[in-house]
Amino acid sequence: MPRIDVQDDLASWLGAAPELAGGLGKLSEAVYDRSHLPLRIREVARARIADANQCGVCLRTRDAGGPAEGIDEDFYLNVTEWRTWDGYSSRERLAAEFAERFALDHHGLRDDESFWVRYRGEFSDAEVVELGISCALWLGAGRLMRVLDVAQSCSLVLHETAAG
Prior knowledge:
It is a single chain. Helix content is about 60%, strand content about 0%. The protein contains eight helices and two strands. The chain has helices at about 20-35, 40-55, 55-60, 75, 90-105, 105-110, 115-120, 125-150; strands at about 60-65, 155-160.
């Protein structure tokens, strides 16, 4: 049950602060529609943060383009096993590690020189910043939705084309 007086859906809670909600919407649009990161990189990081937040809608969100990129339910089911599951590439493992540590141990992440050598060996400056901004959105918005207990029973398919 929501902790604020709104309907339990994906958007009603944003109506409580419309001036700020517009900014969150623009950030979300940028992350989901303007990123240059491969979908598998974005999704492994997003899914790892969704698990860390235990945000229901975030855990159930899927991108309609996922199957064409080899993203199936095993991809999501193994996100906490990113170190050992053989379905992830080395870049995907690094993205999952970044997301996990961003969510759960940002001080340790910042100070881990060996991680940064590995990460910078596979990701450009632009990719580092894009993944960081994306993780900031997923961590913050997902955690807020979980804390406020809004949209927890919803499901979301991204980039789904309208039936014509």
